[in-house]
């Protein structure tokens, strides 16, 4: 699984990266996690509101910070 956390470096973006790493660990998923901060790369995904989460090339959430349960569901 390939996961990208999109965000320019704000507190919510950093929190989403942290929560994503924790969720992957708790779920026992084998995944690569990349933090994307370049605004042009973020725009290539069609994302206008960050933070956003991309799983295997598909934007699954943007513009907010999901709860732990929802995040795990998005990754499962």
From TrEMBL:
<feature type="active site" description="Nucleophile">
    <location>
        <position position="13"/>
    </location>
</feature>
<dbReference type="InterPro" id="IPR005243">
    <property type="entry name" value="THIRX-like_proc"/>
</dbReference>
<feature type="active site" description="Nucleophile">
    <location>
        <position position="10"/>
    </location>
</feature>
<dbReference type="InterPro" id="IPR036249">
    <property type="entry name" value="Thioredoxin-like_sf"/>
</dbReference>
<keyword id="KW-0676">Redox-active center</keyword>
<dbReference type="Pfam" id="PF13192">
    <property type="entry name" value="Thioredoxin_3"/>
</dbReference>
<keyword id="KW-1015">Disulfide bond</keyword>
<feature type="disulfide bond" description="Redox-active">
    <location>
        <begin position="10"/>
        <end position="13"/>
    </location>
</feature>
<feature type="domain" description="Thioredoxin-like fold">
    <location>
        <begin position="1"/>
        <end position="75"/>
    </location>
</feature>
<protein>
    <submittedName>
        <fullName>Redox-active disulfide protein 2</fullName>
    </submittedName>
</protein>
<dbReference type="InterPro" id="IPR012336">
    <property type="entry name" value="Thioredoxin-like_fold"/>
</dbReference>
């Amino acid at each position: 699984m390939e996961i990208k956390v999109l965000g320019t470096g704000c507190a919510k973006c950093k929190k989403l990266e942290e929560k994503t790493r924790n969720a992957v660990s708790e779920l026992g998923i084998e995944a690569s996690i990349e933090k994307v901060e370049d605004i042009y790369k973020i725009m290539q995904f069609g994302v206008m509101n960050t933070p956003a989460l991309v799983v295997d090339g598909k934007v699954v959430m943007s513009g907010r910070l999901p709860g732990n349960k929802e995040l795990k569901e998005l990754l499962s």
